[in-house]
Amino acid sequence: MADAASRLHALVEQLLGVPLPVRVRAWDGSQAGPPDAPVLVVHHRRALRRLLFKPGELGLARAWVAGELDIEGDLYLALDLISGLVWERGDDTRTLARALGDPGFRTAVRELLKLAGPPLPPAPPREEVHRRGHLHTRRTDRRAISHHYDVGNDFYEIVLGPSMVYSCAYWSDPGAGLEQAQDDKLELVCRKLALTPGQRLLDVGCGWGSMAIHAAREHGVRVVGITLSQEQAAYARKRVADAGLTDRVEIRVQDYRDVTDGPYDAISSIGMAEHVGSERYLAYARDLYALLTPGGRLLNHQIGRRPERDETGYHVDEFIDAYVFPDGELAPVGDTVTQLERAGFEVRDVESIREHYALTLRRWVARLEDEWARAVRLTSPGRARVWRLYMAASAVAFERNRIGVNQVLAVRTPQSGASGMPLRSRVWQ
User: CA 275, CA 251: separation in Å to the nearest integer?
Assistant: First the structure.
């Protein structure tokens, strides 16, 4: 097993058919690859078994979460380099079928199996979710939300900071602080919704209450915030009480499908629609449309992915689905606009803020890394590693335009056609 890194590096390059852009350090201390590149540290041969039995993203994720793989050097550069080998190779099914007919390829696989050791892969890390039952029922949605958001409010305080806003900030200055950028995002949403004192706002997926508190305090509206997370609701209610806003803000543990006390003058849905699912999205849009008064506005803030050629259906990311957002689905922004308009909305504005999310995620990763030991104590080593990987990889994905985030402003325009929108674009009143 001497010089495992050289063997591993050569075999991977042979299997991929391209140079490996990172340096490798193996479990025996040996190293191979470009001397100035980030280092992929393979702590244990189990990582190879995971990759051989589950090639691609999910195998890599399992080894990372289990602590069998690590990266030294620039994490973002390493993820960008590796993503070109994993996430951007497209549908490799036919490529793999052709490769299996190549005797050299088969020999390389056999050699890699020998290097990996005992044949059976270990069980997935305990942080991995195993899907059960139908998608996007009330019960499965509650379970999925609980998996992601009930990690612990103390953990989220580390990552998000005092604002406790878990969505893309809005940066007028890249050098500004995270708190200011999040406050600017909340204010931007309020301006787009044209909130005025006395109106009713429904905040769907209210999180820890930041949007509800901001809208009530700064714009004098009455807010109902709904979430499926018990921990979020308890935290948000305390924040509302501490702000002296219990007469204007109500936080409920409630599914959006169960809200029946409309009409509302405005609805904000910030970072929630990704959880709805393709099969439910039109019904979700119709439910929100029915809750608005004529002339009422919806601000839908949602991550979207780039469309693929000749695609059908929605894309599900294996790592994200297994470890981060179970049952989450990303759609191209054009699909979102179409579904909103099919529900009856008039879409009046779409603003892409993709680069803003990359800045936000890098700040969250820095906060997590600064308090790594405490984050591990509050959750688990595997869970902290999940969050670091998903946030850093997502930052790279936003920077490289693999995914985006859009604020879609839609109006329940009355039959008279009077939308109430300003004549000039992006003049929010």
Answer: 19
Identify whether the C-beta of residue 340 lies closer than 8 Å to the C-beta of residue 300. Answer: yes
- Is residue 258 within 8 Å of residue 287, measured between CB atoms? no
**How many other CB atoms sit within 10 Å of the CB of residue 278?**
17
End-to-end CA separation in angstroms for the chain: 69
- pLDDT at res. 134: 52
Q: Specify the amino acid at residue 48.
A: L
- CB-based contacts of 10, cutoff 8 Å, min separation 6: 32
295 sits in which H/E element: strand 292-305
Q: What is the pLDDT of residue 92?
A: 47
Average pLDDT, the chain: 89
Please give the residue that has the higher pLDDT: either 120 or 41.
41
Listed by start position, the domains of the chain span 4-116, 138-411
Asked if 72 contacts 38 with a C-beta cutoff of 8 angstroms, the reply is yes
Summarised one tens digit per residue, pLDDT across range 346-405 is: 999 999 999 999 999 999 999 999 999 999 999 999 999 999 999 999 999 999 999 999
Residue closest to 251 by CA, chosen among 273, 277, 228: 228
Separation of alpha carbons 86 and 240, rounded Å = 44
| pLDDT at position 308 | 76
Homologous superfamily of 138-411: Vaccinia Virus protein VP39 (3.40.50.150)
The answer to whether residues 51 and 16 touch, using CB atoms and an 8 Å cutoff, is no
| Residue 256 to residue 260: CA distance in whole angstroms | 9
- Give the separation between CA 321 and CA 402, rounded to whole angstroms: 17
Hey, is 87 helix, strand or coil? Answer: coil
Q: Give the integer Cα–Cα distance in Å for 240 and 228.
A: 18
Phi, psi of 21 (to 5 degrees): -85, 0
H or E segment to which residue 11 belongs:
helix 4-16
Q: Are strands 249-253 and 264-270 parallel, antiparallel or unpaired?
A: unpaired
Cα(60)–Cα(22) distance, integer angstroms: 15
DSSP 121: P
CA dist., res. 268 & res. 221, Å (int) = 13
CB 383 within 8 A of CB 286: no
